[in-house]
Amino acid sequence: MLGVNSFPHAIIQLQNCWKAYGRVQALRSIHLQIPAEKTTALIGPSGCGKSTLLRLIIGLVRPDRGEIRFEGREMDLQDMPGLRHQMGYVIQNGGLFPHLTARRNVTLMARYLKWKRSKIEARLLELAELTQFPPDGLDRYPVQLSGGQKQRLALMRALMLEPKVLLLDEPLGALDPIIRFDLQTDLKRIFQRLRKTVVLVTHNLDEAEYFGDSIVLMREGRIVQQGSIHEMINAPIDPFVTHFIHAQRRREKVLA
Question: How far apart are CA 228 and CA 231, in angstroms?
Fold first, then answer.
């Protein structure tokens, strides 16, 4: 399909997926392959379908039409509980449970799955070191943590079960520029160290370029183009690609 690359080692494949909410068509004929151990950045205007696409992948919503495959196998409702354990998910603003301490937020699913206490504690400390979350913050509640600490905590929770895939929906969108810059640097280090498959939703083109091995530009529920920022600048397949890039660059200059 035009604008969609073929990846021989795709871990997730969406084939002709459609999704509507009432009369609103959120996704239209989505064909997408997510390469294993790479970062794919989804970008586009508000309401273009980025977050809905992420929810399709993790099975929070089902496509009205089309097929989703994980490691070559079609995903169905019976498989979803087990498949979700292989996918870490960070929603906008972290989605932490306010009545649980940081420790209990992170270990919730491991405790539900009856992991041994020693394994849980070892994994918790490993993740705190990886994300540079302060160990003395593990017994605090989310309201007692800074914005950056909350996002690190949400990432720890998503990684707790050692998933194959990490899905992040605007994980840095609500942070101030300095904290956002620090977390971008740390996230890239974590992605490179873990070599996991990452799908990242963002509104920010520079962020998509910084993280993404592949960028997927969406508009009105469709994929317009997939590739590198270099390909989009030098070989746009639609006038919207150039317009979107110029608008983003101009916005960054104004904000600077």
Answer: 5
